[in-house]
Amino acid sequence: MIRFYFHPTPNPAKVALFLEESGLDYTVVPVDTRKGEQHDPAFRAINPNAKVPAIIDLDGPGGAPARVFDSTAILLYLAEKTGRFLGTPADRPELLSWLMFIATGLGPYSGQAVHFQYFAPEDQAYAINRYRREAERHYQVLNDHLADREYIAGDSYTIADMSAWGWIDRAARVMKGTEDPLAPWPHLKRFFHTIDSRPAVARARAVGQDHAFKTTTDEQALRALFPSNYPPAS
Q1: For residue 115, which of 170, 39, 187, 190 has the smallest C-alpha distance?
Q2: Residue 168 in contact with residue 192, Cβ under 8 Å?
Q3: Which domain holds residue 164?
Q4: How far apart are CA 60 and CA 75, in angstroms?
Q5: Percentage of the chain modeled with pLDDT above 70
Q6: Is the confidence at residue 119, as pLDDT, over 80?
Q7: Alpha carbons within 13 A on the beta-carbon side of 201
Q8: Has the keyword Transferase been applied to this entry (predicted)?
Q9: What CATH number corresponds to the domain at position 13?
Q10: Residue 220 domain flag
Q11: What pLDDT does residue 40 have?
C-alpha cells in the first residue's frame, strides 16, 4: 500500500498518473497547500522541504515503510519497485537525462512563469519575460527532440513521458493569454495528445476530486504558498 500525499498541481499529477498506469494499491492523503498543511510538523516529517508530492510505501525495501519525496525521485522509486516504465537498459542514459531536464528546467521555469503572471505584484515585466521565454525555450528543446520519435526516451512509454505530461498539461497557464498554447510546437503538441489520450490519464485527473481543496488566493494562501516572502517578525 502506498500513501500518496497529494494536491492537484503538476508534480503530484505525474505520480497520480504512474499509480494509475501501474495499478499499485494506494490511498490519497490530501495536503491543502493553500491552507498551509504542507508546513504541519506531521507532513514535514515526511518531506522536510514541505512540498507535495510525497509517498510512504508501507511495503518498502525489506518490508519496512519507506518515505520518498520529490516527484522525480518518486517516479524513479516506483518504476524500479515495479520494474515498469523504465525503458530498456540501453535507454537509461537518455531516460535519466530527460528526467533531470524536466526536473531542473521545464518544471521550475514553467512554475516561475505561472508565479509571476498570476501571483506576483504587478509591474513584473522583466521576470515574466525571463521565465516565460525560458519555458518556451524548454518547449522548443522538447519539440525538436520529438520531431522524429513518439516518446521521449527510447521506443516505449516511460516515466520521462509522465513527467513531461504533468507540466505540459498546464501550458495554457504557462503561456497565459494564448488560445492554442502548444501551436508553435507541433511535435510537442502531438506528443502531449498521445499521452493525454491514455485511459490512465482520465483516472489520474480524477484523483483528489472528492476533496474540497481551497481555491481562493487570499493572504493565508499567499503566506502558505510563498512563505519566504513573509519572514517572521523579529
Answers
A1: 170
A2: yes
A3: 89-198
A4: 14
A5: 99
A6: yes
A7: 14
A8: yes
A9: 3.40.30.10
A10: no
A11: 96
For 188, how many CA atoms within 13 A lie in the half-sphere containing its CB? 23
Whether residue 95 is found in the same domain as residue 27: no
Residue matched to cell numbers 509571476:
116
Tell me if 221 is assigned to some domain: no
- One domain for residues 192 and 99: yes
35-89 per-position pLDDT tens digit: 999 999 999 999 999 999 999 999 999 999 999 999 999 999 999 999 999 999 9
Which tens digits make up the pLDDT trace of 4-27? 999 999 999 999 999 999 999 999
What is the pairing mode between strands 2-6 and 54-57? Answer: antiparallel
Lowest mean pLDDT among 28-32, 118-122, 168-172: 118-122
Same domain, residue pair 95 and 190: yes
How many residues are given for the chain? Answer: 234
Q: Please give the backbone phi and psi of residue 118, each rounded to the nearest 5 degrees, phi first.
A: -120, -25
Distance between start and end Cα atoms, the chain:
44
CB 194 within 8 A of CB 148: no
- Alpha-carbon distance of 28 to 50, in angstroms, equals 17
Helix (H, G, I), strand (E, B) or coil at 69: strand
HSE-CB at 78 with a 13 A cutoff on CA atoms is 36
Q: 147-151 long-range CB contacts below 8 Å, 24 or more apart?
A: 147/187, 150/191, 150/194, 151/191
* Measured CA distances, 215 to 166, 173, 181, 219 (Å): 20, 15, 24, 12
User: Alpha-carbon distance 58 to 66, whole Å?
Assistant: 6
> Residue 209, Cβ neighbours under 10 Å: how many?
9
